[in-house]
Amino acid sequence: MEQAFNRLIPDRWGLLKFWAATTLLLCAQTVPLWSQALPGAVSQQAVIDAQAQQERERQAQQALKPRSEDKPPLEATAVSDDLGSMQLMKEVPSLPFARLRVDQTYNWLSNANYAKNSQNVVAAWQAISSIEAAWAPTIVTMPGYDTFFPEIGTRTSFFNYFSQEEPSQTNNGLGTYDIGLAQDFILANIFFRGTKQVTPELSVGLSVDVNGYFYLNTPDERVDVAGVADNNFLNEITVAYSASYFHPLTETQAVSVNWRASYVFSNPTYYTRTDNSLTGSYFLTLTDQISLNPFASYRIAYYTDATSAPQTQDYNDQGEVTGFANGFSQRLDQQFTLGIGLNFALTPQLSSGLNFNYSKSDSTSQIAETGDFTNLSAGANWSMTYKFSEKEFVVPDASDCVGPYVRTDLGFAFVNDLSSAQNLSGSILPGVRGTLSNPSISINPGLRFDVAPGINFTDWLGVELSGGITYNGLDHLNGNGTLTTDQGSESIGQGGLSLTGRYIQVPALLSTVFRWPGQARWKPYLSTGFGFAYSQLQITEIDNTQTSDQFEEAYSPAFSVGSGFLWQISDTVDFDVLYKLLGVINPAYSGFQPGVVLSNSVQFGINVRF
Prior knowledge:
The chain has 610 residues and is mostly beta strands. It has five helices and 29 strands.
């Protein structure tokens, strides 16, 4: 990706322009708090601040990269015969790379709760430890995509709060302000991003972020500090559009303007909002290793579905109750942030930095604490980033991909419920007798492994014979009736019964594979296949009643439809990502006949060409 971008912008600021386009800006949120409780969704404010700091630090790292003196590698391409023996020279495109990043930040926060109410203004130290894995494929070899840069990845962060200070006005009957017990959490983030370079200085992008939160402590540990603090963590999906303008002033100075508009889906719905931010940054390269980055940011957010929000107690600045109000009704938040960062590039992979930020937020909310806060933060950070592949492996001709190959895939399998409208009696399930109407068995997510030898007749058509195994555990049995095993009886009605057991599928399919033609390193493909499948259903426990561990087998016709893509990572090896739909037609397990059993799988694998 970097080589492709440097070809378009051959100066020391080229890489920084790309990162500027994908910057997550300061777009904050705040929500109401109440006496002796922590504010809802404080974690989101901390997360957004941390993401913005990380992206600014990443921009500054790119600003420090020296201009490459090496000429890009070239390859010769023959032209038509009527031009004689002349050949055209073109640059070899860069290989998509996998990135692993580990980073930590240590911040002192003057307002760890982001609250205006003095009884909840608690200064604290915050530590954030993160690990990120991302894949940034290069598709510049595809016509029309030479300036498009996609990225997909996952990031896990551990937020810890410690060494907090007492609030300015305690009003603290319990005498407990150990906010770490209530605010320590893990954030799991999956992101999808695509950036398009419009001009050498302007880029636009689309992104989707899925955030999930997990506590680092038990409810009993939190309740004395925060009361019912479960709403302090809100799983969210953010869809965003961004634009970045980056302009170098001299060899050592540059400015950037970044705009980001997003819509955030959340539960409860009254946290759902539009969020917009504008950030201006100035970059000054002091030495080959040190840069300075002052910035200013403005954010405005409107909560779009606030009428259903419950009323909560209203407090003044001193923590005194003044009444009740819906703090989200026609709520509009504005936040101003000023900051400066000093960044050190210790090695091409390792960097560190210092930062200082001031934030002031105001809100139209009727609740004094909601959306109104002032926060100072100062801290240090370090990060280490490693790219696993930057060398380009060239397939000189598309015919080199013709011939035999073997692909192995491993991933997650999701089987649809096994259900039927039957009225069963006698032997109704493996090891189970009785009566059962409208049976339905729900299946837990499991694993699928496949091996598929095949042959490519052309660069767009191939045939493969795939075999594999899908393993899933049983979850629940629904229906109406009475079940009898060797160990006892169970009645099933509303709510059903829990199940313990396994469901196995072993398909063997002959498939036709259609691939994207040409020499591109990116090869999307579709596949359709038919064959047979062996399947096995075993039930070992129904609710609390053991069974005889008997199982029933079935041999059935099967079909498969799949879609995925290959990425070339060497001259003979491809990385594989795919989705498969497997259908097993009319298997029978004792008297139970669930019709066509469908399963979905998402898999990752390796394709080796010979």
